[in-house]
Amino acid sequence: MGILDGKVAIITGGASGQGAAEARLFAAEGAKVVIADIQDELGGKLAAEIGESAIFVHLDVSSEDDWTEVIRQATQVFGDPTILVQSAAIVHHKLIEDSTRAEFDRVLAVNLVGPFLGMRAVLPGMQRAGGGVIVNVGSGAALSGVGGRPLYGAAKWGLRGLTKSAAIELGYYGIRVNSIQPGAIDTPMLRRSDQEIPPPRIPIPRYGTSEEIAQAALFLASDHGAYITGIDLPVDGGATAGHWVRPRDLIKETTSS
Asked: Is 152 in the active site?
């Protein structure tokens, strides 16, 4: 028996990284999983790996037609979706002065408009089912400003607001809506170069894993989080807790002298 037995979960960005970890974990906990992504080959392989509890459906989250098809196939194969985890995202590394309107439109389309379309798409099925759970995967960039990624940060801040507003509106239907705000997670996106990546200077001085984000999503999606809605859950090794005024070794030297 798994804690998601009888649930049908759609996971966007589910072909790789955090989304793939969520797909594996949710299936292991008894859910029927719809892996939705633009990465057709990876998504198909993952669905085959998981087995009869999973299918892959192509999804560009910014396409209303694609969302219609995802819901159609999910409902036809497994029944009404009762869980939606929105992990699909793109990162944009440019200064404001170097960014274009077209780039901003694309970042918003995937990181903010896409989750809006996803929530709207699953709503009828969740209403029929008598409730459901939506988990929007944001970013630590939605908890403070981040120089060098202003367009990405703006979209993720918008997703925070959309999540809270949706939690207020959809609670009436028994639908909980929360967000996870991951910190620096060790994924292929982080390791885009062969350079050595130093450990982050945070209370837990290492990078997080996709599996740790998946565990947070599982908690919120399951009945363990039954009285939780409208929250931002940082999963960031303590990065948002604060920082040292001076390096720890210098403080020790000062206080011992």
From this structure: yes
